[in-house]
Amino acid sequence: TASRVAAAEQPAAPKLTVTIGYLGEAIPEPEPLSLVEPVAKDKGLAGARLAIVDNQTTGRFLGQDFKLDETVVPAGGDLAGAGAALAGKGIKLVVADLPADRLLQLADLPEMKDAVILNARAEDDRLRVSDCRANVFHTIPNRAMKADALAQYLAFKRWTRWVLVSGTLDDDKAFADAIRRAAKRYGAQIVEERGYEFKAGSRRSDTGEQQVQRQMTQLTQRLPDYDVLVVADESEVFGEYLPYRTWDARPVAGTQGLVPTAWHRSQEQWGGTQIQRRFQKASGRWMLERDYAAWAAVRAVGEAVTRTGSGDPAAIRSYLVSPDFQLGAFKGVPLTFRSWDQQLRQPMLLASPLMLVSVSPQDGFLHQRT
Q1: 292-302 tens-digit pLDDT
Q2: Any bridge partners for residue 65, and if so which?
Q3: Can you tell me the distance from the alpha carbon of 150 to that of 145, in angstroms, rounded to the nearest whole number?
Q4: DSSP letter (8 states) at residue 222
């Protein structure tokens, strides 16, 4: 009898093995401006690894086994070859930690036409509009989502007169475009725009404190009356220097200061502390936005496999865009994919460097149906 009880308590032997590919590109990133910010060498990948553990927790009781096949190509490396290699192993469920152009290159490979690719890195709005692909889902928020989240909070506070300061690199310009769009949507006025020209040199040592203080003061003086300085500096060249150095006493928001993000280390609501601690234990650092996006991608696949009992990419895709799909992801509400651009709907966190300030959508801005 005891042996029968013990056997009944054992998880079923795996009947279905699902391998999820992780395909990244080792693009060099600048060192953090501040020494208090750690250098993370496994952004994204660490989140995917944690999600595989979470998938296994449920899967082993259902006879499902999940594996992660990790591939990271060097910067500018043979992405087509890596994609073909995944397809050759029968792996058609892929988390892509790639910039926009490389993501499109992967999605357009003949071997990947019937795959499910989950974008965990590229925030470009064009990937959800003109460059949308039927085989690509997005778990990382796009810039329009982030700008809308910030604009809603500023509208709620009635801080509607903005100065926009942006960098000159392409990503900075793209976020500035999203800010302009959000200002129109939520009734804000951009009273002036200014640009910051990047000058090559050491990001840490060339600019002493006095020089930085003068630069930021000069950049922001003689402005019309405004409520908030909105910064578009995704390249992290100058934005971190703006808080407390502006000519006028004004808050800073955007890519620095008050930041809209999918995840933040201060998030502890809705069970957030639990995943923060597990991630910290597994990786030795706090969870970053790309980690969260990769975690959500792997978990979305795991949820679809659990509910459908299938690892077939066509079945997974159909379930992800169906009304039945819901992902619990420590945001207080179930997350779902939009059927038209396959972007993961999710509340956005608004955070200062150390604290969660608010969560969008704000009261009064909720979607009428979802």
Answers
A1: 999 999 999 99
A2: 17
A3: 9
A4: S
